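User: Here's a chain of 538 residues. Predict its fold as tokens.
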Amino acid sequence: MSDRNENGMISAPQPEAAEAGFEILRAGGNAVDAAIATAFVQGVVDPLMCGIAGFGSMAIYDPNTGKHEYIDFHAPAPGAATDDMWADLVEGEARDGYGFVLKGRVNDIGYQSICVPASLRAYATAHERHGSMPWADLLARAIKWARDGWAVRPHVNYFWSDPAAMGRVATADRIAFTPASKALYCREDGTPKRVGDRVENPDLAATLSIIAEQGADAFYTGEIAQKIVADMQANGGLLSAEDLAGYQARIEEPVISKYRDFTITTNQPPGGGLMLSQMLNILEHFDLAALGHNSAEYVRVVAEAMKYATVDKDQGIGDPEFIDVPAERILSREYAAELAERIKRGEKADVPRFDPAAQCKDTTQISIVDSDGVCVSMTHSLGMPSGVVTDGLGFMYNGCMGVFDPRPNQPGSIAPGKARFSSIVPSIIFRNDKPYIVIGAPGATQIAMGVLQAILNVTDFDCTMQEAVSLPRFSSTSNAIDVMNRIPYFVTDALAEQGYEIIRSPRSYGIAWVHGIRITDDGMDGGADPGSDGMVLS
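Assistant: Prediction complete.
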């Protein structure tokens, strides 16, 4: 590895978090230490995107030992949940397939929207299995940011001010849902804080200090758990002491597939790894470079691959502990070839929705390679944040009940202890048996689509990582094609002439916020999606 990256490299959407992780690398910590420290800071300075009460997936590869594993921490439904508890409240399904709209929005905001918090247990598990620095050292920078305060950044302001979309609750309403949250993140007039406004969170600093001293058990069985349970019981929440005490992260082998001369490694269901692998299997049958990057034909071909993968996801990908996921069929090379032939014939995949617009973006990403070549990609999230902050604790809970299917007997139906599908795909791509790309993104149902395009930009169009994450993107998780405003009109006009519905965003960036690192013989180059506030440090 080149000495120009002698400390390793980190890419993350928040500069405060990227710096915290990089300081750990400079202090001699490994990539896992740095990822944990970064994640804790992200929960402070991007508090509706992620936090200790969230969920996610972490890829870890150590070339020195050959160990390659995923720590998957998808938040399960509480034990009090039942498959038919909301069956009579269904109003429709979000157009992008990310959740259902219910009367009263009980699944989307408030105490009943909360699944079992998973992130903190996963951080602790990662530290126990791979960490090299003292646990308390990994929380120090997050405690300082919470105690001393931080300034609202442009991307945070954009997200907090985002209006309701696809039937979901607006972020501003989530921020103001509980008095504790409103006091933290709103101005005196009740509107969200804006760029430059300060956020100080002494309650979260105190909570993190307890965790630094006592470990994650304080949250799951100790004094923090007691406060959580009391709040849930007082406000009709589903989460119980038994749910907290019983939660453990899963240790999984990666999903492994081939794309041209590359080996793709990604996460198991209920994560989005099968979707990513399937799309690449389909696209291997096309000379994408010859089509021209983001030409009308390129967009059509890739969008159809996205649609076919979405259909298979909707019909069969979920928590493998509860349903039989047809992974062999989804990853079949023969099946991919069949779908590719349909695309070549001009057939259009149909993506049904229960009742049929902007994406949900309550997620964040960390990509790290340390000086010893250890690679970590972690995507973690609150899902759609619940809006609930327990008085005195300072963190917001996930809102993961919102993405379960409220109809019984479906792949994504509610069940106690079951985790719902998530598009998160922290991935490591290998070339010649060596790590080549470490990548992931926030962006809800659009995550796999954004990561897919960034991978193609490197593998098929020879982009640097910064170029790869900066090029304009599109997505198709319904029968429409969503495009960012930098996709030219002459491209979308040609697609419209073929009968495609085009939904153009006024924004220049979006369809996930991809962050990654490319490892070459000359060293590493990193990319931070310009649609975020992120940065790369090395």
